[in-house]
């Protein structure tokens, strides 16, 4: 990874398309709603046969076939509470692999509120973990000011170490143990991120990266893939070296 | 009694042709891949072998209510390429272009599809 843009390229490469072949357009709409934050596009292609109950074809970003399933099977895979994917009827490793993207670790959204809620969730997870390190970029110092109390509390009352990145100059009141990278430059000004390495348990790793594509309009992704989070953190550490 | 299924079937037989041709149709249509291919070609008159294989795999997944994986789909593609399409092509029910691997429906595709509609073999509950 040479820039934060590269991370978005990874997400795009992982993106899947779900072609829904069903008589009823509502089925595609229902799946589109369920997949709204997944890294997936849902299309409706009608059903070649009115006699068939319908199916879904999954393609990767290159249009290659990755698997197909009956619509009912997709619904079952989508409700792991009732039917954990690793326990489902036809359970063999390959079946689960073909639809591994259903419990994919990458989610995307254009919705700023959704992204904000996710950022809060990551902070929450870091707080509960009470260890590890958080790397947070709020673009500009002004945007960070609302969250200062939260991060000061991290520094005072938790075992989480915090590193803040901002494009411009920081002169605010922060706990001494919080590390800041100010004058981060253009890239830091374009991206908003909250990355947590999970501390001792990689299962707790999670991160959000969003780009301000137009003023106040964000496109972002979040991931629970610890390797991906680690890659992002390593990139930030090596690019914006400790000061 | 136009709505009587038996009458409809007999009427379809009449339009299809001689008893020998009817036998030929029935034999072809006994193969589910043939039926699925016809359904797909009825929606899109020209399609690539790959897309046909993807959707035939989809029909299989729907019928068995399960997941069909890429290796299984590749086996379906092989069978379409070596068995199903040559058979349909030889009988002029489709035109299969081996060089660019596309399948195109012919006038006879429609006849066979109509016949298939009357038989209603894939009706799901």
Provide an overview of this structure.
The complex is a heterodimer of chains A (243) and B (125). Chain A is an alpha/beta fold and 243 residues long. In chain A, 35% of the residues lie in helices and 26% in strands. Chain A is built from nine helices and eleven strands. Chain A has helices spanning 4-14, 25-34, 71-78, 93-98, 112-129, 141-144, 148-157, 186-190, 226-239; strands at 16-21, 40-44, 55-59, 65-70, 106-109, 133-138, 161-165, 179-181, 191-196, 206-214, 217-223. A seven-stranded mixed sheet of chain A has the order 5-11-10-9-6-7-8, with helices on both faces. In chain A, strands 2-1-3-4 form a four-stranded mixed sheet. The two termini of chain A are 22 Å apart. Mean pLDDT of chain A is 87; it is low at 82-92. A three-stranded antiparallel sheet of chain B has the order 1-4-3. In chain B, helix 3 (32-43) packs across helix 6 (107-119) and helix 4 (49-64) crosses helix 5 (70-90). Chain B contains six helices and four strands. The longest helix of chain B is centred in the middle third of the chain and has 21 residues, at 70-90. Chain B has helices at residues 5-16, 19-29, 32-43, 49-64, 70-90, 107-119; strands spanning 46-48, 67-68, 94-97, 102-105. Chain B has 125 residues and is mostly helical. Chains A and B meet through strand 3, strand 4, helix 3 and helix 4 of A and helix 3, helix 4, strand 2 and helix 5 of B.
